[in-house]
Specification:
alpha/beta, homodimer, about 45% helix, 9-stranded mixed beta sheet, 12 strands, about 15% strand
């Protein structure tokens, strides 16, 4: 990973990812189509209009992006773009990798072999003790610990690895640490590790931001250890994302009589590797860390030449919309069933997305946004 | 399974299995060679002498066996022989199945689908509660619970299944219930289940009798659930025997901070199925119980015609002894390496065994007895 963006390019990237209806997947599709963030920004209004937006989505202005950059510098927060040397390699490999991460702390931490430890906020004393010990022992074994700065297990995992290296992926912006009582912990993490966010500096995290953030925790790591997790808990979302991202999933066994262990015990039933000591994790991950890392180039299924593929006609647009519904379908299927050139299908999808009418899921699946 | 022994045959079986140096494997080998227990009894002194015994092994007299039979009747204990209709089918399939089991209670219990629950004697309150609940729920699902009448988990498993059906396999004789404070529990089990022993009525269990007994617990069951087990505990011996017998092994997860869960968590690491509720067990065992049971006929690798295979010569006996040592070797290897007929090799092994010089292990392995 090598090329650094120019200041202007970085500003354009920030504008593009901060614009309405542009998520990481749309961002990647736009860059894929237009080559440059600047050209994508210029095309946004027209694309959204063609996608059927009643009002054009809000585009982040240059002035707004500059203000965010200045505020970030003041808060000692750096923006690292996907593809730049400091961007964590494993995170770059997930298909909804954030185009820009806002990071504070020792960036070298992001280049170390990393394992995530997550778990219940209302953890038991035993769970907290175990999390802290496991994090310390894995840290001593040379691993960086990623977690989510939450109460309970997350905080214990960070505390146990403060001196060896830890990364907190947070759901809000750097100026809106949640929970507030962990501000000092975040400060301590930044001293010898990294606090990482994909959100604007002042963004206050909402409920839906946490599952979104969880993909970063698993994305940063080669494996995720879950300690105490109830059924339907956020930690299980992280475990699911880890599986989707091809990461190892570990679970710490617990008493069947403790509801805080229901989720972890179910992970065991589903094949997660049991963990009772650090060696269980290091033994499983060593061969993975020894494998040479290579960046999957985010190659799309149907590579096309960058540049404007031309405007799809009404008839083509209607044909694709007719094939779409609330149930996610594969882009490949849309191409096949519509009989249209891939570039046209992708452009229509971009238009719909920018009009707020399309949702992208993992695995090349798309659906119409429920209204 | 169908043929009942005559009273005389049963007496001969009891004499043979109660004679010195005759364990279940020797018993089966002798019956295989001589067809009848009576003929085997007659051959014992000569076999032991040829095997190098300084003094002939003590043979159980007819009078002794009759006294044991009478005492058993007085204690409401019945002897069931391997191959008789009441003998549990699964137990008959293990290669060191006891030729005779002494049973007290409702014999029909032994014909029911059975699962074993075993675990720590010094179990936690949570472990005991869970064991009792699991046994009750598995009982309600139609399964008989086998266990070992020990303190802690075993007793809880029996208690939870008292009304639905439970089998206690004990290490001592029926008149020597261990631990003594479980005499009332044994009584209650016999009311609606079975207490089972392969030992003489007054046999006081020694330490080595417990591992030996454990093979009966797993042998009676299609699967073994281990609840709380420290490393190097008796419950893990039962689990290992279950694996050797081709039984399913289940383990209940527990906190890594509780030494009582170290053994069970390690079983999980080795691939045991995690159990947090009865459905985990019933779902895994249902297909096994639905499979038609067939008795593996204890067919030896090299079937030979019953009857005396002839006396091995000195030279042949020496050749086999020279191939033996304290390390278990396969009987097949002995046959191959000695170049002798299988019948001769087996006869020499019998002689050595009856002279107290040979030990039989699982999987057709034998070794010289350490002196």
């Amino acid at each position: 990973m090598g090329v650094r963006l120019s200041d202007n390019e970085r500003l354009d990237w920030l504008r593009l990812i901060r614009s309405q209806n542009v998520g990481p997947r749309t961002f990647h599709a736009l860059i894929h189509h237009y080559g440059q963030a600047r050209d994508a920004l210029a095309a946004l209004p027209q694309l959204a209009r063609r996608g059927g937006a009643s009002a054009p989505g809000r585009i982040c202005t240059r002035a707004e992006a500059e203000r965010e950059m200045t505020a970030a510098r003041a808060a000692a927060v750096a923006f690292v773009a996907l593809g730049e040397p400091d961007y964590p390699l494993r995170l770059a490999m997930i298909d909804d990798a954030p185009p820009l991460i806002a990071v504070r702390g020792k960036l070298a931490t992001l280049a170390q072999p990393t394992v995530a430890i997550v778990g219940a906020r209302n953890a038991s004393a035993a769970g907290i003790k175990f999390a802290e010990r496991l994090a310390r022992e894995l840290g001593e074994a040379g691993l960086v610990i990623a977690s989510g700065l939450a109460r309970g297990i997350d905080a214990a995992a960070h505390r146990g690895s403060l001196t060896t290296g830890t990364v907190a992926a947070i759901a809000g912006g750097h100026n809106s640490i949640y929970p507030p009582e962990h501000a000092a912990l975040a400060e301590a993490i930044a001293q010898n590790g990294v606090v990482l966010s994909e959100m604007p500096l002042d963004h206050e995290p909402r409920a839906r931001d946490f599952p979104r953030r969880n993909r970063l925790i698993s994305g940063l790591a080669a494996g995720v250890v879950v300690i105490e997790a109830a059924q339907r808990s956020g930690s299980l979302i992280t475990a699911r994302m880890a599986l989707e991202q091809g990461r190892e999933v570990f679970a710490v066994p617990g008493s069947p009589l403790d509801p805080r262990c229901e989720g972890t015990n179910n992970l065991l039933k589903q094949g997660a590797a049991p963990v009772t000591e650090a060696a269980d994790v290091t033994a499983a991950l060593r061969p993975i860390f020894e494998r040479p890392q290579q960046l999957s180039a985010q190659e799309p299924d149907h590579p096309i030449a960058p540049g404007d593929p031309g405007e799809p006609g009404h008839e083509e647009r209607d044909r694709i919309v007719a094939l779409l519904g609330p149930t996610p379908v594969g882009i490949d299927d849309l191409i096949r069933l519509s009989g249209l050139p891939p570039a046209i299908v992708r452009t229509v999808l971009l238009e719909l997305e920018l009009a707020g009418r399309l949702e992208r899921h993992g695995g090349g699946l798309v659906s119409l946004t429920a209204i």
